[in-house]
Write a structure and sequence with these properties.
Strand content: 5-15%
Shape: flat
Oligomer: single chain
Distance between the termini: 47 Å
Largest sheet: 2 strands, antiparallel
Structural class: alpha+beta
Order of helices and strands: EEHHHHEEH
C-alpha cells in the first residue's frame, strides 16, 4: 500500500498504519505532538543546531500512542473520533474551515462486504436548522 504525502515523493505505508488526509496537521499535532510544517519552520529558523532526526527524536518522546491493531468496533470508534476531532479543530483554528458536516463511516471486513456504520440522510446537506427543530 502506498500513499502520496504533501511532499513530491511516494512512500510505502504499513496497511495497519493510520493515514491522515485532508487536514493532517490536527491529528499529527494531537497524536505525535507536532506536524511536518512545524518541524520545517524550526529547521528553517536557523535556531536549531542539531539534525532533523535529533529534533524528531526529541519531540516524539511524549507522543500519544497511535493504535495499530484494534477490534473492529474500537477501530470504528477511533476513526469517528479522529474525524470529529478534525472537524472541531478546524472550527477553532486560524485556517479556512475545510471540513465539517455529517460524518459517514463504512466498513469492509474479511467476512462481510461493504456496509455503512454511519450514513447521513440523502437530504442532510439541504436541511435547515429550522427544519431540524420541527
Amino acid at each position: 500500500m502506498f500513499k502520496v504525502n504533501h511532499y513530491p515523493e511516494i512512500t510505502p505505508v504499513l496497511s495497519e498504519a493510520p493515514i491522515f488526509w485532508g487536514v493532517p496537521q490536527i491529528m499529527e499535532r494531537l497524536v505525535f505532538g507536532f506536524d511536518s510544517p512545524i518541524i520545517m519552520e524550526i529547521l528553517k529558523s536557523g535556531k536549531w543546531k542539531g539534525t532533523v532526526e535529533e529534533l524528531i527524536d526529541l519531540v516524539v518522546r511524549n507522543q500519544l500512542i497511535t493504535p495499530r491493531l484494534l477490534p473492529i468496533r474500537e477501530a470504528i470508534d477511533w476513526v469517528h473520533t479522529v474525524i470529529h476531532t478534525t472537524i472541531r479543530g478546524t472550527k477553532f483554528a486560524n485556517w479556512p474551515h475545510w471540513c465539517g458536516g455529517p460524518i459517514e463511516i463504512a466498513v469492509i471486513t474479511s467476512d462481510r462486504p461493504f456496509r455503512w456504520v454511519r450514513h447521513k440522510r440523502m437530504d442532510a446537506a439541504i436541511i435547515t436548522s429550522e427544519e431540524l427543530r420541527s
